[in-house]
Here is the input.
Amino acid sequence: MTTLWQRLKFAVATDMDAILDEKEEKNPISLLNKYIQEAEKETETAGKWLERQTSLSNKLEKELQEAESLLKKRQAQAELAQAAGESDLTAYAEQEVAAYSSRVDELRKTLDENTAESVALEQRYEEMKHKVKDMKVRQLQLMGKENATRAHYQMDKILSPELVAERIGSYDDMASYIKSLGNKVEERHERSAMERRLEALEKNSAKSKDIV
Here is the structure.
């Protein structure tokens, strides 16, 4: 009976990867991948809106230059008509001057507002790109931890099968096991990093003594 139970627990441990795959939708990496894809699409759309805003500013600038040019032309014509005593031409030219003056003022105001909006959009667009980049870095971090955890789990099935068997009971147990392994990986990494620094310090100290 005991042998049968041990075999059963080993079989459950062997099939645990299949259980994890069934829970893939709940995997934080899978969820993050979907979120990154959506964020990239939204960022791309935002970039297109920003391009359109910039294009509108260019068109407004062109309209403003044209209106200013015509305003100067009508102002000069009004002065000539008045000097020539052409009252009807003077009246027409002055009406044109008033119309173009109003258009120039409106275009300048609109252009200033549009430029300010472009600056604000540009800043937010850059923030979106940074956010997506940060998420991709986080994605790599999680993938690294998951990969190391799975690797340790596979190794433990051979090196410490009794440890795996004791922890296998449900998916929640497995999740806790993976989390604990992840913590152990981090602790080992920190410990080895500190050890490397201490060894480097010892070597540098020894070199300094040799020089002296």
